[in-house]
Amino acid sequence: MELIMMVCSIYCFLIGMCVASFMNVVIDRVPRGENFVSGRSHCDSCGKVIAWYDLIPVVSYLVLRGRCRYCHSKIPVRGFFIEIFGGLSGVFCFYRFGFEYETILMFVITMILLAITMIDFDTMIIPDGLNIAMFLVCLVLMFVRQMSLVDSIIGMFCISLPMFLLNLVIPDSFGGGDIKLMFASG
User: Fold this and answer.
1) Three-class SS of the chain
2) For 134-157, how does the pLDDT look when each residue is reduced to its tens digit (9 = 90+)?
3) Which are the contacts of 102, defined by CB distance < 8 A and separation ≥ 6?
4) 10 Å Cβ neighbour count for 50?
5) What's the CA gap between 79 and 57, in Å, rounded?
């Protein structure tokens, strides 16, 4: 049984790194209004398209020593740490929830929150698309956990409504994206 758990943990770590690598693309492109689904990854400094073998999460960063293969400009270390965090999150979700649907849903929620955190840190904006994604995943989680609709509605308003009211009393105390995030995740 220990061997199965170890193999599953390694698998979750690898999948987590790959998903987090994709979230790096989301974090980079969404604030600029670029399409994060299509279009090849490229160096921000020289514009060269990055080869597939330079896109292996964590490994490529270490092999290239944190620099572009072509122009040798520095690649931000933040992407490396996000990929490590994604791998560790995958393992943590697996250990917490095991072989259940909740494992996948909680991991997806973690990755959405990671993207929201990084984009909010960079731009002070939480994109509506990520709030909608959070709402949809939380809606599915509600059905998986067999939560009552009333409890879920209470959860949606118990934090978002006070934040909204406080924002009316003290303008700009919270951004609209923060209130929407609390509504969606409630």
Assistant:
1) CHHHHHHHHHHHHHHHHHHHHHHHHHHHHHHHCCCCCCCCCECCCCCCECCHHHCCCCHHHHHCCCECCCCCCECCHHHHHHHHHHHHHHHHHHHHHCCCHHHHHHHHHHHHHHHHHHHHHHHCCCCHHHHHHHHHHHHHHHHHCCCCHHHHHHHHHHHHHHHHHHHHHCCCCCCHHHHHHHHHHC
2) 999 999 999 999 888 898 899 899
3) 141, 144, 145
4) 17
5) 9
